[in-house]
Design goal:
This protein is α/β, with parallel strands linked by helices. The protein has a domain at 9-95 and 166-244: P-loop containing nucleotide triphosphate hydrolases (Rossmann fold, 3-Layer(aba) Sandwich), CATH 3.40.50.300. The protein has helices at 47-55, 77-82, 100-104, 119-133, 149-162, 179-194, 206-209, 235-244; strands at residues 9-18, 21-31, 36-40, 62-67, 70-72, 85-88, 167-171, 198-203, 215-220, 223-229. The strands form two sheets. The protein has a six-stranded mixed sheet, sandwiched between helices. The protein has a four-stranded antiparallel sheet with strand order 2-1-4-5, with helices on one face. Strand 9 and strand 10 form a beta hairpin. The longest helix is centred in the last third of the chain and has 16 residues, at 179-194. The protein is globular.
């Protein structure tokens, strides 16, 4: 992937400190179009803090973010959206009492020429985007509280894609989902990849992301352990990175294979 396209995102030497505590200590990672990068580590490893720098929730003490090769200034969520960065948190930030269309356009409602809510157009647009991402979705009139976990993820993902996300941050997208629901989210992620959207997938559970990710970036105690191609490692290799904070013996520090590996 590297060498064929330029990265969508480059995060270079990112530092984040809260008081005297270094939550993120000199981490570098990147993301290419149509790629899924799984961000792994124990709770407290710094992965969520790192990604919140990209989403605008936190600001780095030092370091640089580049989007499409250009230096980016991301001070808040509005700035992130201006760079077509959308975040889907584990809580999904959906309004349970509203239906899919109302949630998709929540805070960004479409209006008629007279300034009234254009509910007809919002529902039509919702049906169109859901038809593209999840053709089996049918519960357009139901409040999202009545939807399954996978269906709720569909609504949150559709909202991000409708508003032109090119960089998607997904926080524990399959947590607490059953097998069928997890497959639904997996299929959605594959569709997003086909549309050249780059995805950061945050998880503390290797099993959630191993089959979905092209590369895995592992953090421990705020530091980068390394970034590896999923095809080059086993789950045991990655568990070793998470627990021991060391690269697998058959890989170089940059993730490439050792000549004798």
């Amino acid at each position: 992937m590297a060498g064929l396209e330029k990265p969508l995102v480059e995060m270079r030497d990112i530092h984040v400190a809260f008081g005297g505590i270094k939550a993120v200590d000199g981490v570098t990672c990147d993301l290419y179009p149509g790629e899924v990068v799984g961000l792994l580590g124990h709770n407290g490893a710094g992965k969520s803090t790192l990604i919140k720098v990209l989403s605008g929730a936190y600001q780095a003490s030092t370091g640089e973010i580049r989007i499409d090769g250009e230096k980016a200034s991301i001070r808040n969520a509005r700035d992130a959206r201006a760079y077509n960065i959308e975040t889907i948190y584990q809580t999904l930030a959906l309004a349970d009492n509203l239906d899919a269309a109302a949630n998709l356009f929540l805070g960004r409602e479409l209006l008629t020429g007279s300034g009234m809510l254009d509910e007809v157009k919002m529902e039509a647009e919702t049906r169109a985007i859901m038809g593209r991402l999840n053709p089996n979705f049918r519960k357009f009139a139901a409040p999202v509280a009545a939807l399954s976990g996978g269906q709720r993820q569909s609504v949150a993902i559709a909202r991000a894609v409708y508003f032109n996300a090119r960089i998607l941050i997904m926080d524990e997208p399959t947590a607490a989902l059953g097998v069928q629901e997890t497959k639904m989210v997996s299929d959605l992620i594959k569709q997003l990849k086909a549309e050249k959207i780059g995805i950061f997938l945050i998880s503390h559970d290797i099993h959630d992301v191993f089959d979905l990710s092209d590369r895995l970036t592992v953090m421990k105690n705020g530091r980068l352990v390394g970034t590896v191609r999923t095809v080059d490692v086993s789950k045991d290799d990655v568990l070793g990175m998470i627990i021991l904070g060391e690269m697998p013996k058959h890989l170089n520090p940059d993730g490439s294979r050792r000549a004798d590996g």
